[in-house]
């Protein structure tokens, strides 16, 4: 399965900083052909990023989307507008959106359906908090998020990102065993929902991925890629992650 390595820049980088990153980064990954390389800048930098990656294999993603096509929804951005800005993907259900903007499974599901209907690929995020993990609820939380978030959604152009909340931005990466265990569980849930077709869905890991731990994480059986925050902000570091070498 082709690996899927995505950068989630979150609320970082101006237009000028985006252009500067791309000018260095795009040549660094010219040779990386067996991996989908995706970058999700903030809305304000999408157009500039699209321009800078033109002619390269790097693909553009948004970090969020609204579910309506147009109208009186101040501050929101529609799926068609993202396509128009050059996006091929959108991140939906990130824990920061669930936590700070109170997005629940129903909202996440509406966004996923609307994005897919418009033809955007979806990077669907799920993950448990530290409390949930410590009280033995990890699998219940993941099953609920995946089943409810993906109700009525076809498996094509779908990537599922497992991001344990306690590993995001903390430098506390899940161990390869911890990550693999949940990835295998997600694969099982997806098989229940989609049958054989679930094989086309890549399950990627996010949470303090760095050039130092990417090789071992990518060596895990059910990990098909990475969703990278902090370590995706520097061209060298993100390029090294794109050039991972599977370690067993
Ligand atoms: P960090 O890589 O900074 O931990 O962020 C992970 C993340 O939330 C990617 O979506």
Describe the structure.
39% of the residues lie in helices and 16% in strands. It is globular. Helix 1 crosses helix 10 and helix 5 (105-118) packs across helix 7. The protein has one domain: Aldolase class I (TIM Barrel, Alpha-Beta Barrel), CATH 3.20.20. The chain has ten helices and eight strands. The chain is α/β, with parallel strands linked by helices. It has an eight-stranded parallel beta barrel with strand order 1-2-3-4-5-6-7-8, surrounded by five helices. The model has no long low-confidence stretch (mean pLDDT 97). Bound molecules: 1,3-dihydroxyacetonephosphate (13P). 1,3-dihydroxyacetonephosphate is lined by residues 8, 94, 163, 168-169, 206-209, 227-231.
Give a quick rundown of the structure.
With 248 residues, the chain is of the alpha/beta class. The protein is built from 10 helices and 8 strands.
CATH class: Alpha Beta
Largest sheet: 8 strands, parallel, barrel
- The stretches of 5 or more residues where confidence is low (pLDDT under 50) are none
CATH topology: TIM Barrel
Give the ordered list of helices and strands: EHEHEHEHHEHHEHEHEH
- State which percent range the strand residues make up: 15-25%
Compute the number of helices: 10
Mean pLDDT across the residues is 97
**Rg, Å, rounded:** 17 Å
Total DSSP E strands: 8
Domain count, please report it.
1
- What CATH architecture do you see? Alpha-Beta Barrel
Structural class of the secondary structure composition? alpha/beta
At the fourth level of CATH, the homologous superfamily is: Aldolase class I
Helical amount = 25-40%
Shape descriptor reads globular
């Amino acid at each position: 399965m082709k690996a899927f390595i995505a950068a989630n820049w979150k609320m970082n980088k101006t237009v000028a900083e985006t252009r500067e990153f791309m000018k260095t980064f795009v040549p660094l990954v010219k040779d990386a052909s067996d991996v989908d390389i995706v970058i999700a800048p903030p809305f304000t930098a999408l157009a500039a990023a699209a321009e800078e990656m033109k002619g390269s294999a790097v693909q553009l993603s948004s970090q969020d989307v609204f579910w309506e096509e147009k109208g009186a929804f101040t501050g929101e951005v529609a799926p068609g507008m993202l396509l128009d800005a050059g996006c091929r993907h959108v991140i939906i259900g990130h824990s920061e959106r669930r936590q700070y903007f109170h997005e629940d499974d129903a909202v996440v599901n509406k966004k996923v359906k609307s994005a897919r209907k418009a033809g955007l690929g979806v990077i669907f995020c799920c993950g448990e908090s530290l409390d949930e993990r410590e009280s033995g609820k990890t699998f219940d939380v993941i099953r609920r998020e995946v089943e409810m978030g993906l109700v009525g959604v076809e498996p094509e152009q779908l990537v599922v990102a497992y991001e344990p909340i306690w590993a995001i931005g903390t430098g506390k990466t899940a161990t390869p065993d911890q990550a693999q265990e949940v990835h295998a569980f997600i694969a099982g849930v997806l098989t229940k929902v989609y049958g054989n077709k679930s094989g086309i869905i890549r399950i990627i890991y996010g949470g303090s991925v760095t050039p130092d731990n990417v090789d071992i994480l990518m060596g895990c059986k059910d990990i098909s890629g990475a969703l990278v925050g902090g370590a995706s902000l520097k061209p060298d570091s993100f390029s090294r992650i794109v050039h991972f070498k599977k370690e067993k």
